[in-house]
Design goal:
34% of the residues are buried. This protein has one domain. It is α+β, with helices and mostly antiparallel strands. Helix 1 links the parallel strand 1 and strand 2. The chain contains seven helices and five strands.
């Protein structure tokens, strides 16, 4: 098993330059693998985990066997980045507003799905985490 096999995987909006830059920063600072929502393996993973393909920021932590989505993902990422607890709470409480502003600035034509909880990692989805890792092997385009 590789050292990164237990590392968290972030599913992010690859069409959003701001999200891409944040994904690059997390990858460098926190060892989080980052894969754009538009990558081929993401759909099957989301289908297995949620029974649908919600357009949302998703943090998959196979070591904890947890999946954070939407506000929960944003708050968890803020906490893992070492920001003060109040920052994570502010991010969680203002997730929709932040997503709306970022979406407008990036020209994204869709709104994030209304999934904001922490979920147990489904066994079928867990079996697909490695396919996400392979899709994350290339840095997001914003890093180029």
């Amino acid at each position: 098993m590789s050292e990164s096999a237990g590392a968290p995987v972030l599913i992010f909006d690859g069409d959003c330059p701001y999200c891409s830059m944040a994904a690059v920063a997390l990858r460098r600072l926190e060892g989080v693998e980052a894969v754009p929502w538009e990558a081929d393996p993401v759909g099957p993973f989301l289908d297995a985990q949620f029974g649908a393909r919600p357009f949302a920021m998703v943090l998959v932590d196979p070591g904890e066997r947890l999946v954070y989505a939407g506000r929960s993902a944003a708050e968890e990422l803020a906490d893992r980045a070492g920001t003060p607890g109040i920052v994570g709470g502010l991010v969680r409480e203002n997730y929709e507003r932040i997503a709306g502003v970022v979406g407008a600035l990036s020209g994204r034509g869709r709104d994030p799905a209304d999934v904001h909880d922490t979920y147990d990692l489904d066994d079928d989805a867990a079996a697909l985490v490695e396919t996400l890792r392979r899709a994350a092997s290339e840095p997001p385009e914003a890093a180029a």
